[in-house]
User: What shape does this take?
Amino acid sequence: MSADQDISEEGRRRLHFGFYLSGAAHVGLIGWLLIGPLFQVEPLPFDVTTVTTISEADYAALSGQVAPEEPAPEVVPEVAPTVPDAPEEPAPPAAEDTPPPAPVEESPAPVTPPEPVEEPPAPAPEALPEVPEPPAPVTPPDDIPPPEPAPPADEDVAVVLPEVTPRPQPRPAPRVAPEPIAPPEPEVVIEDTTQDAVVAEEEAPTPEPQEEQEAAAEEEATSEIVTEADEAPSGAPERSVRPRGRPRTPTAVAEAPTESPAETPAETPTPATPAPAPEDTADAVADALAEALGGSSDPTPAPAAAPSGPPLTAGERENLRLAVQDCWVIDVGSAAARVTVVVTMEMEQSGRVAANSIRLAGSDGGDARATEVAFQAARRAIIRCQKDGYALPVDKYDQWRQIEMTFNPEKVSR
Amino acid sequence: MSVKHPVTQVLTAPALTAQGLTAKSLTVLCAALAVLMAGLLALPAKAAPLRIEITEGVVEPLPFAVPDFIPENAAAGEWGNRLAQVVADDLNGTGLFIQTPQDAFISRPTSFAAPVQYNDWKAINVQALIMGAVTVGDGGQLTVKFRVYDVFSGQELGKGLQFQGTTEGWRRMAHKVADAVYSRITGESGYFDSRVVYVSETGPKDDRKKRLAIMDYDGANVQYLTDSSSIVLAPRFSPTGDRVLYTSYATGFPRIHVLDVGNTQSRILESQTGVMSFAPRFAPNGQTAVFSISEGANTDIFTMDLASGTTRRLTNTPAIETAPSYSPDGSRIVFESDRSGSQQLYIMPAGGGEAERISFGPGRYGTPVWSPRGDLIAFTKQHKGRFHIGVMRTDGSEERLLTASFLDEGPTWAPNGRVIMFTRETQGASGQASLYSVDVSGRSLRRVRTPDAASDPSWGPLQ
Assistant: This one.
């Protein structure tokens, strides 16, 4: 606001000075014409100041610049949004579409060229009425700092300012700037009170160095705002697919060689989905599996494997534990009752222990003789209670084909 | 403002194809890696055994069968049944075994060398089978051999063993067979072929006659070592079982005697005249005796070299300190003392010195005896008008009371440290003392049959 006031005062001062000067000259002239002959004296020389009014285009033409066709510069609406890029000073407009208006001209040189102004003689009185009111400077947006005022012109030069166009209204354009407009720097306010300088603590926690992140790709700006309603389908599934069932384990029935994907496209009626991808993936998985197992990628049928399945449930394990512990006879007063033995065994599919497969895998807490006795007791317990075979699920045979049983009499011996 | 970035829409067709191929390749690669990892993880998982931990079991006697020993000649006809019966009684008496009656047998062995029909024994839940044979040679020479089988594992436990002796010693031979069977099944040495010296009592309480007697551990073959002309107390076997220390009032004053078991000759240990000495016990080396001497109102513990008669004071306090017992290695002595105001158990070095109290429970503790294993100390405890036989660790921890009655006292350990024999006296004017045995676990409390009332047992070593 202070800049606007300065401009008005300056303008008014110039106008008043010219007005008084012109008035004095006219009064003098009239007086000389009236009383001059009476004295018949040699007229005193006096200086005459010629005032002329030229446009910027004429000035530009005189000074060798290219004169625009349009004498009245018009602020191009596109210019305004670009101003924030240079908040201190208005950005220089493009040469082809922006005539150099004084208020927005970057260089004040065209405004104050005294030599060209003095040359063209022009009657001053005629020009005075045409002097328009000092134009209000182009008000930049609120967040744009005002441009620097033009340096004061010479006092004896009156310059007709170019016609000022009304403040351009921003044209509604669906343009999305790739970056937000940086806010202006806050004004510095000097406080009355002084504050002590902050002293860094001795053991102030140093901020952890943040990992450098690669600069993400700049968001792409578009020339149009595409609403969701107008967005074309992206091809993503609109709802989740029901999960498939657990893949079956290889069984004797599944030993048939798998058909190649080319032979079974008709059996998979999924035209809407990209059918080849899962099949290719399946082939790749099969190849990877074959490679992992050391075989070739040929889909040759694997030999019949023993039935397997998910791990034994807690109940199945508990049944086995209870069955064995019912036959584990502990001599609480013996040294063997302080020995923990680990026994391994091979199991048959019938649930019986394979003959002569019970081995002592480890022991803790006693000498060799006590360990041997503890092992014998464990072996008797395992064999005695198997009867016709432990009740173990046959389909999970792989899970209990080998059993490692620990006989820990700590609780019993107390 | 919601701004969409339809990147895929601006991709050209070739770009779309290349992108799709890249995505598919990545998918395949990821799937292959996943399968590879799954395979690697599945292989060891498949090989890992099923792990089960058994933390509870059953405490019950092990069923065994001992058919009559097969007589291998005509003279051995009657011995087969006798031997088998003693072996069965020995094992049954432990509480760890239970005999399957012969009536339940499906088949009977006819030859010591015949293969064992395991299925026949499994069918009647026999876990241990004892097969024996006996031969009586000319001159009454008895030959006994046996084998032990683990029926369910179908294996023989150990190797066959044979003993030779006379027909007079047939019981000892049967005990030795039982010891061998016991050892092979439990892993511990047996205690059947051992003897016990004790005080045999006859007559009413107000006129009780006492004399030293010796018997097999099961009460058989009782022999008297002294007459009942004088009171005898607290006999103690030597480590080798050839001598017995005991207290006798033959001189009108309690004095320690040492008796030769072989010839029943005894002598008084050298000590000061007019001084009461009692509660003797052999050191593990058999060359030293530890005992108590009472002088006035004070009783202290001394040792004596049996060869030279040299005594040495171990304690010197105004308290009553008695009932010393050596640790198996002979380095320490446990004894009872009332130096704290009540009768408690203490342990001191074998050469004397500062004693450490190990009993802190309520009641009074006495007659401590160190286990042959060295891990436990048996004692008598009096609490709330009742007597108990108990055991505790040598540091006083894990105290367990095994018995409770009107009067239980005087524990003695079996040579294997597994069984404790003690005296139990019934209440009343007609009450009598008798010998009982109990397993160190507190199970299998049994009375030892003796011809007369019995007290103060001392279990001797294996013969």
About this structure: Residues 418 and 440 of chain B are 6 Å apart (CA to CA). Helices of chain B lie at 7-10, 13-47, 79-94, 118-123, 170-186. The longest strand of chain B covers residues 141-150. Chain B is about 15% helix and 40% strand.
